[in-house]
Structure formats: C-alpha cells, structure tokens
C-alpha cells in the first residue's frame, strides 16, 4: 500500500513524551510522520520538553489532563500511560502510537519501513479471526486464501487493532532480558496475521495502531502497577488493555492483527537492575489470563462501551477482592466514558 | 537445528508416487534425504515407476495395499492418498511427507532449506496453543516469550504436527488459481507458529510432518471426493484430515505448528481446465467447518484412537445423512485401526 492512499485527515500520531528531548526522535521519523498531525502528551513528571521544528504538533500537558480527569486522577497518565491521554483527545478515525525509544526499521531489502502505511493497510483490510490462513493475512499483496479456506468466511470482519513488532531490542520481560542480555530480535518476519478468535495474546503498546471509532472506548490505562516505572518491562498497562480489547473484539466480531510493520527499538534501562524489583505483573498474569479466557459477554453488549462496562463489572466481582489493582482497573473502566465526554473542556 | 541432531532411526520420508519417473525428484532431494529411509507408495493407477539409485528405499505397491486393506478398499489409496499407506506401514516416530512436484526451497539468504531438520525441530520443541506469542514460536533460535506471556504456560505441550509452506506455486484452490493465474507465492516468511487452540485451519498435505506415536491414528484419507483427481486443488483428503487432527490435538492438549520449512512447488495441471469440474470440496467446507468448530469430545477420549472413534460417530450422526462422502469418511475412520493391525501381513 502506498503512502498516498492514506489521508492525513484520518490519522493522528500519538507520542507519549517522557524524555525531555524528542528532537532526534522526531528527526528520525520526519520522512514518515511529517505530513500527519502529531499529538504529543507530556508525562506529568517531566519538567522540560524539546521538540523538532516543522511538524504539525499539539502538545498536551498536566494542565490539560487536570481539566479532563481532575487532579486526583493524574497518576493514570504518568509514564508510558501519558499517551492514552492522546487517544482520549483525538478525534481522528485511526491512531498510531510508538514508544519514544523507537526509530524506523528497515526491511530485508534495506527499504525504510513506513509504519503509517503498514498499520493503515492492516486496519483498512479485513481481518479473518474465524479460520486460520496458513499464508498469513490473505489481504496482503501477494497472498490469498489457501485451498480449503471456507468461502463464506473470506469476506472477513473489520480490523480494529494492528499490533506491530520490534527489531533489535524485543519486548521481553525483565527476567528474560536479565537472563539473556544478548538476546536481540534480528529476524524480520515479512508477515502479518489475524490472531484467531478466542486466542489471548500479550498486546504491546510499543508500536500499535487502532481504529478509534471501533474500539477507542476500550483502549485505556486501566490497570497500573503501584511500582510501575519508565521502562517497558515494568509496565502492565498495555498487556491488560490488550486482553480487554481482545475479549471485546472477539465478542463484537472484530479483528486483531499482529506482525508487520516493524520498528527498530533501542536499549533503555538496565535489565539486571530491574531484577531487584518485584515482578508484580508477572504474578498478576497467572490470575488474569484464566479470568479473560473464561469471560463471556452478554448478547446485550453491542458496542465497545457496553462491553467495557460488562468487563469492568466482572473484574470487580471476580478479581476485585484479590488485589487492589483490579478494583482500581474496574473503576477506571467505568470512569473512562465520562473522561471522554470531558474532552471538550480543553481549549482547542 | 543442525542435521546431525536428527537420528535417521526416528524418521521415515514418505512419498506418494503418481508419476512414473521420480529420478529427477529424488536427485533434487538427495542432499537432504539420502541418509534417511524412504517409503515410496506407488499409486495403484500407476503402471511403471522409475527411481534414482543409491537410496535406502522400500516401494509399496497395489499388492501390499490389498494385503492390508483388502481388494474392496483399494480406492482409498489412489492418487494423492497413496502416501497414507506409507504412514500406515511406518514404524518410526516421525514421518515427513512431500508432494512429488516439490523441490528444495532456498531461504532469503540463498541457503538450501533442510526440510527434515526444520520439521524435526518443530516437532521436538514444545508447542504453545493456549496463548499466542507475538514473536511466533518462542522455541525457535533467536526468539523467546514476549512480555506478558504467562509463565505457567511457557513449558508448552508436545507438538504433534508440523505443517510446512510452499514457495512459487502456492496451495490455492481451483477458482483462485484460475482467477489469478499469475499469483505466485514469492514471500519467504521466516517464522513458524503454533496455531492456537480452538482455531481451525486448512492443513495441506503438500509438505507435512507429524509424530506418528502421538497422532498416527488420526492421519488417514477418510474423506475422498468421488471425482477427486491428481492435482492438489481437486483434493480434500488432507483438509478433512487436518480438521480432525486439529480437533483431536486441541482435545488431547497437543500442538499444531504452521510455517517454515518451505518447499519450492512446481506447476502441475491447468487451473483453467479445473474450472470445468464441480468444486464439490468447496461446497462441502461450508458444512464441515461449523461441524468441527462445535464438536466437543468427551473426557473419556484420552488417546488419539479414542478420539477418532468419537469423531467418526459424530460425523455419522450429524453429517452422514447429508452426503455419502461423510458416511464413507466415518466408516474409514472406524476401520483405520484394523488396517493398522493388519500391517504385519506385509512381508518385511
């Protein structure tokens, strides 16, 4: 898919800023991002912010966050989670978001990967969650449905989320990084696929895009660990969000794709140092996964908003008593709709 | 995985012969196959068979088939299905089988793909059907489990089937080939993944390997179309077999992998000519897929043999009245066990 078929009117690039100097980051991305509107959300903990010139950019700060969610909820948008405020204030159809330690990747042929074209292509072509296609996404150029694929399922369903991947530093957790410090992801796998219905997955927020009109109501930083830091392996907000999104997509018959486009990810933080911390997230997953795998939404839940409310009620009932982070997550999921309604409070 | 770690005592290469001259095919594969035992099954319709010299090979003919299944069942092993007789008579742990119109593929780096090493590596490392790993098979060299993957699921389950892929002529059905005669598969996707539990898939017999001890009782040519021919797009036996195998693997907590290793596939037959035929298989899939998607095996089914009997009973009950091919399939599934017991009737 060529870049020209992507309208800049339908895309917001959202960047969470938790480094004070984004100039080199923005320069690296200039060939790909320059014609799109950038939403940059400043981590409330960050003092200064330096940006490159020549972009169509709007920066949102702590003051904006307070206007929308009030001063008591500002911690929801600290660290990696600040980007979710950008998702909240966007009014475009598609949102693309990458971590600020990523630079453009190259294909096996040495071509620069255009993540905007790649994500938008994934989102604009149907997803096929109800039968696995062995040649991956049949809607990618050069592929198709293989022999035996039921014709009645070939029109697919709308794709709601496109989860991109990472070259160089992959998205491993702290124990894996610490045990295998030299493990780099060097394999460029030239494929994207629909994650089958009912299969759960660890959605990463490092390089992601979604259709805000379809699932914007679900993409939020509901579950945050108390000691959550500023390196990816300590975060859990995207993993939790991904489980909710996947359950909602399965229920609403929407698709989730995973694979290309890639970004190049650079080192950040010391994995060995992170070993001193508690891995609360690792422990939580053992409780969280069986919950989501058995969660059934009711036929009355016909919109993403309905689904979020049902998931929140189930989280509160079935997980709420075991850990305060779960009751906190349920609360945020209930409040998110009202945050969305408040976004007009920000000066345009 | 290097070839040296594969013992030739545990592998049979099974080739169905429905061309009278396999010499060039065998020469192409000599670097990879020469140290393994080859089981070549001659299509009963084939008169002559010419082979390359210097292989450890045993050829099975119509006379052998009659000894094991009787003269009335010989049609079960005609055309592509003759290879299943090789699966029946093998006593090795692993079986690898490819179509006789395939030659070795090359990787993106130009290296020859060793399909034996690739398949055995897939089969000897665990599969992970209960949670999707976004970096594909975490047991492949250079990969691992990504952040958020539950630790309790990281040991995986035994892998029962490895479904390889095809470069050049892909495994499309007749309508797709006829509509897009120039559509070739040129994309070498350097990945293999576990197809998630509960997701159905179109298993192709072109390039496949399996653990005979785990699922040998399930891999059979149960469903054969009346007008089934000698080109892949007219066959259905592998697709049906794949659906049964997947349901059985899901029930027994075994894994099915799909992806590398690739073979290079050459043109065979005229897609346009095939348009004159009825596509009975295409129509059957619309009935077959909902059946398998809703099929539940009982907790009493604890072996592959048990599972096959339960699937056969359900096929007979729920599909048997709609089409004679289904009652025929159920019958073969019931008889397969006795065929297996008869294999001692062949002279060693």
Automatic annotation (TrEMBL), chains A, B:
Name under which the protein is recorded: UDP-arabinopyranose mutase
Taxonomy, superkingdom: Eukaryota
Primary location recorded for the protein, binned into one broad class: Golgi
Organism from which the protein derives: Lactuca saligna (Willowleaf lettuce)
Any GO MF annotation of the entry: UDP-arabinopyranose mutase activity
PANTHER family, sorted: UDP-ARABINOPYRANOSE MUTASE 5-RELATED (PTHR31682:SF4), UDP-ARABINOSE MUTASE (PTHR31682)
Lineage: Eukaryota, Viridiplantae, Streptophyta, Embryophyta, Tracheophyta
Similarity comment text for this entry: Belongs to the RGP family.
Any Pfam family: RGP
Location of this chain's protein in the cell: Golgi apparatus
One GO cellular component, as annotated: cytosol
Alphabetically ordered keywords of this record: Cell wall biogenesis/degradation, Golgi apparatus
Keyword Cell wall biogenesis/degradation: yes
GO terms classed as biological process: cell wall organization; UDP-L-arabinose metabolic process
């Amino acid at each position: 898919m060529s870049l020209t078929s992507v309208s800049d009117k339908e895309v917001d690039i959202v960047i969470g800023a938790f480094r004070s100097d984004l100039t080199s980051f923005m320069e690296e991305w200039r060939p790909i991002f320059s014609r799109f509107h950038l939403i940059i959300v400043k981590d409330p903990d960050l003092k200064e912010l330096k940006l490159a010139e020549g972009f169509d950019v709007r920066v949102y700060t702590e003051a904006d966050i307070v206007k929308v969610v009030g001063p008591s909820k500002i911690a929801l948008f600290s660290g990696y989670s600040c980007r979710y405020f950008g998702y909240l204030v966007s009014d475009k159809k598609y949102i693309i978001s990458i971590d600020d330690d990523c630079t453009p990747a190259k294909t096996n042929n040495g071509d620069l990967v255009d993540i905007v074209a790649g994500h938008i292509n994934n989102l604009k072509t149907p997803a096929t969650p109800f039968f696995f296609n062995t040649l991956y996404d049949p809607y990618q150029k050069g592929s198709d449905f293989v022999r035996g694929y039921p014709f009645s399922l070939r029109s697919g369903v709308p794709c709601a989320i496109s989860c991109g991947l990472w070259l160089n530093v992959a998205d491993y957790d702290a124990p894996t990084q610490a045990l295998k410090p030299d493990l780099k992801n060097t394999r460029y796998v030239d494929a994207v696929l629909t994650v089958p219905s009912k299969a759960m997955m660890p959605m990463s927020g490092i390089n992601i895009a979604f259709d805000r009109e379809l699932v914007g109501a679900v993409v939020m930083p509901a579950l945050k660990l108390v000691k959550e830091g500023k390196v990816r392996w300590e975060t859990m907000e995207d993993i939790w969000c991904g489980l909710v999104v996947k359950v909602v997509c399965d229920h609403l018959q929407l698709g989730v794709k995973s694979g290309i486009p890639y970004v190049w990810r650079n080192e950040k933080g010391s994995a060995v140092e992170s070993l001193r911390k508690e891995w609360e997230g690792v422990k939580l997953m053992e409780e969280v996964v069986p919950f989501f795998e058995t969660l059934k939404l009711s036929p009355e839940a016909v919109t993403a908003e309905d689904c979020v409310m049902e998931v929140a009620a189930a989280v509160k009932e079935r997980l709420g008593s075991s850990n305060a982070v779960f009751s906190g997550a349920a609360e945020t999921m209930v409040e998110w709709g009202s945050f969305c309604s408040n976004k007009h409070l920000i000066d345009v």
